[in-house]
Design brief:
With 210 residues, this protein is α+β, with helices and mostly antiparallel strands. It has helices at 3-19, 58-65, 73-76, 183-209, and strands at 25-29, 34-39, 46-54, 82-88, 93-100, 111-121, 127-133, 146-147, 149-150, 153-160, 163-173, 175-176. A hairpin with a 2-residue loop joins strand 10 (153-160) and strand 11 (163-173).
C-alpha cells in the first residue's frame, strides 16, 4: 500500500478514536492533561489518550508540534532527539525518521521510528497530525538504536469557540517500543511520557507568546 493511503488510513483511525469515548480507563491526571488508556486493536499493547487545554491559539500550538524539518519539536520535546524528513510525498504527506534518547533512568535505550505522517486542516479550524509506521529504503535499522513502531497515532489541535487564546489538544499514542522491556516498565513509561509532553508543550507555547 502506498504511503499516502497509509497516512489517510491513520488519519481515519484518529477520527474514529476521537468519536469513540468508550472503554477508556483513566491512569494519570495533572493540571495540564488527563491521560487514559485501553487495549489496542493494532498490536499487543495499549493505546493512550491525552486531553488538555493549552494557553495559546491553535496556530501557536500547531507551530510547536507540526512534523516538519527544522521545527521546534526537538527543542521542547524531551522524547525527540532528532527529526528528519526522509521523503516528501505531497504537500501534506511525508515519510519521517525520529530518534529518541534513552529514557526511564536509561532502562529504555535510544529508539528510532520511521513513519508516514499526514497533516490535515478541517473546516472548523482543527488541525491534525497523524502517523503510522512504514518501511523506507533510505531508513534501514541503525546499529545504535532499537527500531520501535508507531501504530496509528496523532494529535488534534481543536479551537475553543469564544476563546481564541486557548486550544484543546487531543492526542493518541500507541507505540511498540521494541526490544525486550518488562511490561511494567512500558506501562509506567507512557503515562509519564504523555504528562511530560503536555507539560513541556505548555512551557513552549508560553515561551512562544512571550
Amino acid at each position: 500500500m502506498e504511503y499516502a493511503m497509509l497516512a489517510e488510513a491513520a488519519a481515519e483511525k484518529m477520527e474514529l478514536y476521537r468519536r469513540d469515548p468508550g472503554g477508556w480507563r483513566g491512569c494519570r491526571r495533572t493540571s495540564e492533561v488527563s491521560v487514559s488508556w485501553r487495549p489496542s486493536a493494532e498490536f499487543a499493547g495499549n493505546v493512550y489518550r491525552g486531553e488538555g487545554i493549552l494557553p495559546a491559539s491553535p496556530r501557536r500550538v500547531w507551530e510547536c508540534i507540526k512534523p516538519v524539518a527544522g521545527g521546534p519539536r526537538t527543542e521542547w520535546d524531551q522524547n525527540v532527539k532528532e527529526f528528519e524528513v526522509v521523503e516528501v510525498v505531497s504537500d501534506t504527506v511525508s515519510v519521517c525518521r525520529t530518534t529518541t534518547p534513552s529514557a526511564f533512568m536509561r532502562i529504555i535505550s535510544p529508539r528510532e521510528f520511521v513513519d508516514v505522517v499526514l497533516m490535515k486542516q478541517y473546516e472548523d479550524g482543527t488541525m491534525l497530525s497523524a502517523a503510522t509506521n512504514v518501511e523506507h529504503p533510505l531508513c534501514p535499522p541503525q546499529p545504535n538504536f532499537v527500531r520501535g513502531f508507531n501504530y496509528p497515532c496523532g494529535c488534534f489541535c481543536i479551537p475553543l469557540p469564544g476563546e481564541p487564546d486557548r486550544t484543546q489538544l487531543l492526542s493518541f499514542f500507541q507505540t511498540d517500543l521494541g526490544g525486550y522491556l518488562p511490561q511494567t516498565v512500558v506501562d509506567s513509561f507512557f503515562p509519564a511520557s504523555i504528562t511530560g509532553f503536555y507539560s513541556n508543550l505548555t512551557k513552549a507555547v508560553k515561551a512562544l507568546k512571550a
